[in-house]
Amino acid sequence: MTLSVREGVKGEWVVLSVSGEMDLVTSPLLRQRVHDAVADGRRSLVLDLSEVFFCDSSGVGVLIATRRLIRSCQGRLRLILPAQGADGGSASGGGAHVNKVLAALGVRRLFDVYPDAASAVDDEAGPLSA
Questions:
Q1: Distance of CA 66 to the CA centre of its chain
Q2: Residue 125: inside a domain, yes or no?
């Protein structure tokens, strides 16, 4: 499988919509797209991971490196993942795997997570709880 990264702009936010698998082979594409956005002077970044159905440690590494890069330039990073269900379990469908992996590794709390693009780019909306 491959990884696809589409870029959009919503106000001051760059939204990178990611779909497919984030693994050792494909994750460098996302890393490069993040670096390109920052090199272009963009400091407010949303990673829409709702269509990612597999993420290994390489993908998690890219997310953590992205967080570090954005923080180093006083930027803002938000992730879009499915909302957790009332029982605390992840929703099914795209992005649920990423949510589970981040939670299992104990790093989901490092990220501001939103259920959709509209809330991610809304400065009045708060993130989902970890």
A1: 9
A2: no
The domain in which residue 64 lies consists of 3-120
Residue 88 banded pLDDT, cuts 50, 70, 90: very low
- Residue 129: inside a domain: no
Identify whether 49 is part of a domain.
Answer: yes
Q: Is the dihedral of CA 102, 117, 40, 43 positive or negative?
A: negative
pLDDT of residue 76: 96
Query: Among candidates 110, 129, 109, 128, which has minimal Cα distance to 119?
Result: 128
Q: How many domains does the chain have?
A: 1
Is 78 within 8 Å of 120 (Cβ atoms)? yes
Q: What is the mean pLDDT of residues 42-67?
A: 96
Antiparallel, parallel or unpaired: β 3-10 and 112-114: unpaired
pLDDT for the residue 107:
94
Element (H, E) at 28: helix 27-39
Report the distance separating Cα 122 and Cα 30, nearest Å. Answer: 23
